[in-house]
Amino acid sequence: MRNTQSTNLLSELSRPGRRGARVGALDVPAVDVVAAIPAHARADAPPALPELSELDIVRHYTNLSTLNMSVDSHFYPLGSCTMKYNPKRNERLAALPGMLDVHPYQPESSLQGMLEMLWNLQGIFAEIAGLDAVSLQPAAGAQGELTALLVAAAYFRDRGEVRSNVLVPTSAHGTNPASAVMAGFKAIGIESDAEGMVDMVDLRSKIDAQTAVLMITNPNTLGLFERNIVEIARLVHEAGGLIYLDGANMNAILGAARPGDFGADMMHYNPHKTFSGPHGGGGPGAGPIAVRAMLEPFLPTPRVVRHEGGFSLDFNHPKSIGRVRSFFGNVGVLLRAYAYIRTLGADGLADVSRYAVLNANYLLALLRDLLPVPYSKGCLHEFVGSAMEMKSRSGISAMDLAKRLLDYGFHAPTVYFPITVREAVMIEPTETESRETLDAFADAIRTIIGEPTELVQAAPHTAAVNRPDEVQAAKSQRLAWSAAP
Ligand SMILES: Cc1ncc(COP(=O)(O)O)c(C=O)c1O
Predict the structure, then answer these.
(1) Which of 89, 115, 248, 396 is a plausible cystine mate for 311, CB 3.0–4.6 Å?
(2) What spacing in Å lies between the alpha carbon of 175 and ligand 1's midpoint?
(3) Residue nearest to atom 7 of ligand 1 (CA)
(4) How far apart are CA 335 and CA 310, in angstroms?
(5) Quick one: 226 and 308 in the same domain?
(6) Among 308, 342, 376, where does a domain finish?
(7) Based on the domain organization, do 256 and 391 belong to the same domain?
């Protein structure tokens, strides 16, 4: 259905004299405001505030809120930068006054409940990772990567070792090489083989005494478990390097495999992809990291510790890389992850992964004849189809398909990533979607493929904004309204 609601700004909707509130009679002595404010501090004219009725304002914001797609309103099969459903129970818990109203500058004695929650969460994240120590400070997955690489750099410095290279498979998320460079390393790409796995020949040729860290995503961005992970870890360790796991895809292996057991020395979690935390649009997130014991001294401070009298913040880590985020991290997001984990328990988390894998494979089976999936053997939580055939047959590209899906009420999948698949359409349904939703999504793709090319190429036809220049939209945002041309 076409969305014809007004997107005018409040200042454009304004009409002189229109009012949305009535102020009651004064119950305090009247003050002459003009006389009370010195002339030099007074504005020459009243501010040009919009004049609106309450209904104008309610309708304006309600309409705006429906122009965007969200997990709460639409199926959101965005692969890789997945947004899982945020259960409302967790939102309510995080909004309880005892959680919401505490301040990090309160005395520790009055924060015992919050500190206990954080301490428990550190333990849970260590257990799921199969690693020894956790920092909850990083505010997003990418910051977790950077933090762990700074920890690795401090570790090598402490040992008097000079290692300058970080190896990153070409299928990795763009944040991996960016984090490596930000941490002062040189990022070196490793090719993928014909099955979408790390190319072992290329890897062997690039591991040397300069190798500090191999950053690996497992399951990788094709949704496949790196079969050779134990051998990869052995090779890197033998050369004195460390294994970093981009743990963004833990949603596929909860309760089935632990990164520490398959060779990872450090990792980050993406709670928004695995533990239902909110994130996205650059908003607050969390990217806690877990590391092996030998890296613990270098973790950010403060750490939450337990002692006989209760819980406190421990700053006494002379080798620490210091703070990477104010206070203890984005506690509200961590709290939601904690609520999610405690609600489901270990068995429930293992079920999450089973259903995530089941849903992805069900959709894969429905779609593989429409969008061939070049690397589908052993697909776990997500898969990457290719619109290449469709594009050469009818001119409909991955981007056209993604845009047209909006008209059918579906958020677009990730497109053009990973770069190892041409015209990539990366789909991750997550575990919460019903069979009916998955069927409807596959039906929509089938219908779109049968539609006239021009119609699809001009999509979306129902969205408030059609096809913005994506680079300009990201790089030159105009976030403030001004009356001046
Ligand atoms: C594989 C992978 N690595 C890293 C990240 C970066 O995480 P964030 O967006 O929290 O910085 C993502 C994004 O979700 C991801 O999918």
Answers:
(1) 115
(2) 7
(3) 141
(4) 19
(5) yes
(6) 342
(7) no
Query: pLDDT at position 328, please?
Result: 84
Same domain, 206 and 291: yes
Question: In the listed set 302, 320, 342, which residue is the last one of a domain according to the structure?
Answer: 342
The pLDDT of residue 82 is 86
Q: What's the chain's Rg over C-alpha atoms? A: 26
- 184 domain residue, yes or no: yes
Ligand 1 centroid to residue 362 C-alpha, Å: 25
Q: Which amino acid is at 144?
A: G
pLDDT digits 0-9 by tens, 132-148:
999 999 999 999 999 99
Show the domain range for 415.
351-472
- Give percent of the chain above pLDDT 90: 82
Give nearest CA residue, ligand 1 atom 13. 81
Grade residue 46 by pLDDT with cuts at 50, 70 and 90.
confident
Contacts of 355 (CB under 8 A, 6+ apart): 431
User: In total, how many domains does the chain have?
Assistant: 2
Ligand 1 probe mutation, 84, 137, 173, most atoms within 8 A of CB: 173
Residue 387's CATH number: 3.90.1150.10
Residue 27 resides in a domain: no
Pocket of ligand 1 (CB under 6 A): 80-81, 140-142, 173, 175, 217, 221, 246, 248, 270, 273, 279, 285, 287
Q: Are the C-beta atoms of residues 212 and 153 closer than 8 Å to each other?
A: yes
Q: Which residues contact 53 (CB under 8 A, 6 or more apart)?
A: 18, 19, 20
pTM, full prediction: 0.90
User: Pairing relation of β-strands 383-386 and 424-427?
Assistant: antiparallel
Q: Atom 10 in ligand 1: which residue has the minimum CA distance?
A: 141
Q: Does the residue 450 lie in any domain? A: yes
Give the pLDDT band of residue 474 (cuts 50, 70, 90): confident
Task: Check whether residue 366 and residue 324 sit in a common domain.
Answer: no
148 and 266 in contact (C-beta within 8 Å)? yes
